[in-house]
Design a protein that fits this description.
The chain has 90 residues and is an alpha+beta fold. The chain folds into two domains: 1-35, no CATH class; 36-90, no CATH class. The protein has helices spanning 15-29, 65-74, 80-86, and strands at 37-41, 56-60. It has a two-stranded parallel sheet with strand order 1-2. The model is unreliable at 1-6 (pLDDT under 50).
Length: 90
């Protein structure tokens, strides 16, 4: 690993991103047009292996609410985070 704490992928990207890009190409060749990646970090520390984007969701921590958030993400629900925040009782 050359003294690095984490493995790196092609051109300095995180290894998970290199593999994600390979997987996207394979799944699209097999007719899966909209693959998604969910990264759950049980003990988040401010960095991620993959950046949030249209097809990648990063979740920090874990509770029963994670299942609702992931389900909304998989349904391509653009207003999912607004509803999740509004559902919290103060």
């Amino acid at each position: 690993m050359g003294g690095r704490a984490y493995g790196h992928g092609r051109q300095g990207s995180a290894g998970v991103m290199s593999e994600w890009n390979v997987l996207i190409k394979k799944t699209r060749r097999h007719g899966i047009a909209d693959p998604k990646l969910v990264c759950i970090d049980i003990a988040p520390y401010g960095n991620t292996q993959a950046p949030d984007c249209q097809d990648i969701l990063n979740v920090g921590g874990f509770s029963d609410a994670v299942f609702r958030v992931v389900a909304s993400f998989l349904e391509n629900d653009a207003s999912r985070f607004v509803r999740e925040v509004e559902s919290v009782e103060l």
